[in-house]
Amino acid sequence: TYLRSFDAPDAGSSVDARLQTDLLLALGIADWAQLEMDLPMVLHQRGTSLEGAGLVALPGASVGDLRLGARGTVLRTPRRGFGFGVGFDATIPTGREDALTTYGGGTYTPSVLGEYRGPRGITVATNLGYSVRPEVNLGEAIGGDVVPVRLAVRVPVAPRDAFSLFAELDAQASMVRGADSPVALRGGFRWQTRGGLVMQLWGGGSVISSIGLPTMQLGLSAAFAPMRRLRTCLLYTSDA
């Protein structure tokens, strides 16, 4: 993922650009549950952080906060109709504060997941949660607990769902007085092979910006899962 320009201007810290990848492992259990582990890794970045009374260059590479997650199906989505599930995510502060790759403490987010499959394979998915996070105060930039909301739409444009378009809206309603409530949009292409390879190319950026939210994003992802285990759920894992 390529991220462009996110900062805390009142604190003097900023990331001008960042090239990041995520190592994501997921294990399905009995066709109704999934366990996940996600480790963000910054391959290269450019920017500055406030150290003492002056600014210093950010480390060029670092790891982020490790995320552990679980998903469970409550009502399975039929070929056409509604489905429902629950999820839980927790992060461990494995990142570095001097590299701006950690939130500074552990977080956890319970969530509910919904999906609707309509005619012609069009799928709409959403999740709603509550994210408990440490309160931070960087100058006038404030952060803490948020209510994350995500809405995604996928529209197949080729037989057997081999090629499709998707769009996502990602919003966070802050529960801390004076903190920002950012909104971001993403969109792109999804390609799926009969062998289980899934690739996505996407781009987007912030509509309402906030500290830690990039103004522009470009991403390429590749995943593999046996076809009998492959799901079309669009609920994207939380961003750092």
Structure overview:
This protein has about 240 residues and is an all-beta fold. It is about 0% helix and about 60% strand. It is built from no helices and 16 strands. The protein has strands at about 1-10, 15-30, 35-50, 55, 60-65, 65-75, 80-90, 105-115, 125-130, 135-140, 140-145, 145-155, 165-175, 185-190, 195-210, 215-225. The strands form two sheets. Strands 1-2-3-6-7-8-9-12-13-14-15-16 form a twelve-stranded antiparallel beta barrel. The protein has a two-stranded antiparallel sheet with strand order 10-11. A hairpin with a 4-residue loop joins strand 1 and strand 2 (about 15-30). The chain is globular, with a radius of gyration of 18 Å. The model is unreliable at about 5-10 and about 230-240 (pLDDT under 50).
Q: How many beta strands in the DSSP annotation?
A: 16
Biggest sheet layout: 12 strands, antiparallel, barrel
Low-pLDDT runs: 5-10, 229-240
Gyration radius from CA atoms, angstroms: 18 Å
- Measured by DSSP, the beta-strand proportion falls in over 45%
Side-by-side strand order of the widest sheet: 1-2-3-6-7-8-9-12-13-14-15-16
Distance between the termini: 12 Å
How many alpha or pi helices? 0
The dominant shape is globular
Structural class: mainly beta
> In which range does the helix fraction lie?
under 10%
Mean pLDDT: 83
The string of secondary-structure elements, in order, is: EEEEEEEEEEEEEEEE
